[in-house]
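Support reply, case 0932

Customer input (verbatim):
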Amino acid sequence: MADLPLGLEQLKYPAPGAPELAMRVKELLEGAGFKKVEEERSRGLDHGAWVPLMLMYPDADIPVCQLSVQLHRDGQYHYNMGKALSPLREEGVLIMGSGSATHNLRTLGPDRLVTCLRPMNPCNLKVWDFLLIGYEDVNDYLNKAPDAKMAHPWPDHFYPLHVAMGAAGEGAKAELLHHSWTNGSLSYASYRFTSRT
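Our regenerated output:
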């Protein structure tokens, strides 16, 4: 959080935890063959979780259970995590993948620079077009998108997308809800996944 705007670290989002949901998540992941699913009870919510939740549920009145990404794993691993969690949709759980459509803090600048940073746009559009067509290419985004490493030098802000896609289920469709740019290179594309069932 050191590189984020002043004052952001002082914001609070006191949403209640969801320990029963956390146990259900652990049960589903272990049942799908994921090893060593650990619980972390002392860490607060990551800004990738509470920032969008603060906008969606400003009263912080919904219980939240956060799932950590695994940086040493790949997109397919996270997609499979989502598939394991797909029964939660029928149990009234909102599964949200949050992290920014592009997240390269080294390229931040004034908003007027968005048009100058066109190398990001082909990657962004190509990867997000995959969402509208099919998921297989997103799981192999490093090979399929021309500037994937420029848009996401580290995958921690991209893997939540894979979890959400997996949770949506086979044959799910992506719908673009919003797209905007800020700070010259951060894309805030937002998608909703609707399942066939």
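We compared this against your earlier run and they match. Two observations from our side: The CA atoms of residues 9 and 153 lie 23 Å apart. The beta strands are 173-178, 181-182, 186-187, 190-194. Please reopen the case if you see a mismatch on your end.
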